[in-house]
Amino acid sequence: METENSLPSRILVADGQHLFRTALHDLARKAYPLAEIREADGFEGLMACRDFNPDLLLVDFYCTHYDPVTSAKWLRGEYPASYIVLVSTVPDQKAVDNVLDNGVEAGCRLRQ
Q1: What is the largest CA-CA distance in the chain?
Q2: Phi/psi of residue 45, each to 5°?
Q3: Domain membership of residue 72 as a residue range
Q4: Which of 33, 34, 64, 107 fits a disulfide with 42 by CB distance 3.0 to 4.6 angstroms?
Q5: Are the C-beta atoms of residues 84 and 76 closer than 8 Å to each other?
Q6: How many separate domains does the chain show?
Q7: What pTM value is reported for the model?
Q8: How far is Cα 49 from Cα 92, in angstroms, rounded to an integer?
Q9: 83 falls within a domain
Q10: Are the beta carbons of 40 and 13 closer than 8 angstroms?
Q11: Is residue 109 part of a domain?
């Protein structure tokens, strides 16, 4: 996503907590001011946004009502051309690696 032609035009932000979802939305807006951004508050919200076909997904590791590995596999299958970024405060590197091995392109662990 380095060239102007490859900048995301549709971004989906998923986090179970409104405050963090808003922060991710604001971060995405600053990075990609021309992109359309939608939000999901959990796995059901992610399923409801399938028709949006995002270029970029910013997803909380433990978003409400879903298992991270199962969700990574589902997201990869549902959005095969999307770039998926996992945002987490999870200190367990093995758990993060497991999700990365199952469809997520990048992991970002926030310091506690």
Answers
A1: 36
A2: -65, -40
A3: 4-91
A4: 64
A5: yes
A6: 1
A7: 0.76
A8: 29
A9: yes
A10: yes
A11: no
